[in-house]
Amino acid sequence: MTDYLFVYHGGAVPRTPEEGQKAMEAWGDWFGALGDALVIPGNAVGASRTVTSSGVTDDGGPNPASGFTVVKADSLEAAIEMAKGCPMVIDGSGSVEVAPIIEM
Asked: Could you tell me the pTM of the whole model?
C-alpha cells in the first residue's frame, strides 16, 4: 500500500456556529469512513507564501492550499475514490489534489 497526500483547495468558511458544527460533523464522518486508511488527519492551513528563484510573494498562487491529509491506498484510483467523499468535494466548495508520496 502507498501513502497519498490529499491537498485541499478552497472550501467555505462557516458563517454561523451551527454551520461550523455541521461542517465538523461532515469531516468527522468522512474521516471515520476512511477507517485505517487515514494515516495523518492533517489540518487546515493558513495564508501561504510562494517561494521561487525570483523571490517571495504573499499569495499561494492561483489555487492556494487550504489543508492536507495523508491516506493509505492500494492505488491512485482507490485514493481518488476516497477523495470523492471529501465534504468540500461533495458540497462543491473546494477540490482535493491527490498525489502519491514517493519513498526516497
From this structure: 0.91
The C-alpha angle 19, 40, 3, rounded to 5 degrees, equals 125
pLDDT in tens, 12-71: 889 999 999 999 999 999 999 999 999 999 999 998 999 989 999 988 888 899 999 999
Domain residues for the domain of 33 are 2-44+64-100
Name the β-bridge partners of 8: 67, 96
Q: How many domains does the chain have?
A: 1
Q: What is the CATH number of the domain that holds 27?
A: 3.30.70.1060
The rounded Cα 87 to chain-centroid distance in angstroms is: 10
- 82 vs 75: CA distance, rounded Å: 11
Integer Rg of the chain from CA: 15
